[in-house]
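Run log, item B.
One chain of 125 residues. Sequence copied directly from the ordering sheet:
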Amino acid sequence: MSDCQDTFDGASEHQLIAQAISGDHVALERLLLANYDRLARSIGAKLPASVQQVVDVDDILQQTFLQVFRDIRSFEARSGPSFFSWIKTIAENRLLDTIKGLKRKKRGGDHHRVRKVKEGQSSSI
């Protein structure tokens, strides 16, 4: 249902996008639900097996949808599939961020060396 001529119970995708941009959360939910399966398949195909033990597609989609709700007002509709392309790009970026974060944790990258500061000395941090 990525074509602007497709209908969502009487409203076109283009109309729902305009409503969502103007702050209509129900319109945005309808758009996200209409694109959910396609987006899940796309992200599922890119989810490395090593990451699947810790993170699943729904985790990535949840992060994606949170960002979409936060950033929808900055979305600029250009062509029929532009909304799907936009949310797919967000999902791919969330996936990459998740993979990088897991690699950082595996290498101990979340741990920071703390230097003890003696009394009377100032910290350079």
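Observations after the first pass:
- Residues 1-6, 110-114 have pLDDT under 50 and may be disordered.
- The first strand starts at residue 7 and ends at 8.
Flagged for discussion on Thursday.
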